[in-house]
Amino acid sequence: MRAAAVCLLLAAAPAGAKSPPLDYREPPPDPPGYGAPTDRLDRPGPFQNLPAIDESRWVPLPPVKQPWWTFGKVDPVLTEACRLGDFFTLPLNRIILQFQGEQGRALMQVVPPLYRHLLVDGRKLAQPGITYYFYDTGRPDCEVRVDANVKIHSFPNGRGTALPPADPQALAKRKAQIASWPKK
């Protein structure tokens, strides 16, 4: 039936008819700065992606004169969790710490102990009484720092990840599942 309809349409078209011309337009040029390498943000985290309606004011803590990379201690477990999206601060967190040293300027988002509602902590890694400092939160290179006198988490020896499993017996269950697979 369809083949007959197609043949009928082809036969009805006049032999000298041409297809209409294509309406081709050149694509617009690339915007300025397109393809240029990007550097770290000059603001903490995903503030540049917030909608324009978000006009809440920042709450700056007293500025620090030292470079940001010398402040506190990097917590490797929390940093890995931040990069995996398991431990980060909300974009609406406007509590910031400014670093104004001559060697480098930066801003970090701060989560004090009384503002734990600003944390997204899916694995319950936050400890009471500790202030967390987030650098580039929401990005794959984010970093979590704690005060210098706080004991940081450490990576367990011989493990691929520092995050605790959701189920403490998950490794044993996984090994049992693999052992039960049929062998050839």
Per DSSP, the total helix count is: 3
Mean pLDDT: 75
Main sheet: strand order: 1-4-5-7-8-2
Rg estimate, integer Å: 28 Å
Protein architecture, described:
The protein has helices at residues 2-12, 76-84, 170-179; strands at residues 59-60, 73-74, 87-89, 95-101, 104-111, 119-121, 132-135, 143-146. The chain is an alpha+beta fold. The protein has a domain at 56-154. Strands 1-4-5-7-8-2 form a six-stranded mixed beta sheet, covered by helices on one side. It is flat, with a radius of gyration of 28 Å. The two termini are 52 Å apart.
Throw out a few tags for this protein.
single chain, 184 residues, alpha+beta
Short recap of the structure:
This protein has a domain of 99 residues. Helices cover 16% and strands 18% of the residues. The strands form two sheets. The protein has a six-stranded mixed sheet, with helices on one face. Strands 3-6 form a two-stranded antiparallel ribbon.
Can you lay out the helices and strands and say which pair or pack?
Layout: H1 2-12, E1 59-60, E2 73-74, H2 76-84, E3 87-89, E4 95-101, E5 104-111, E6 119-121, E7 132-135, E8 143-146, H3 170-179
Parallel strand pairs: 1-4
Antiparallel strand pairs: 2-8, 3-6, 4-5, 5-7, 7-8
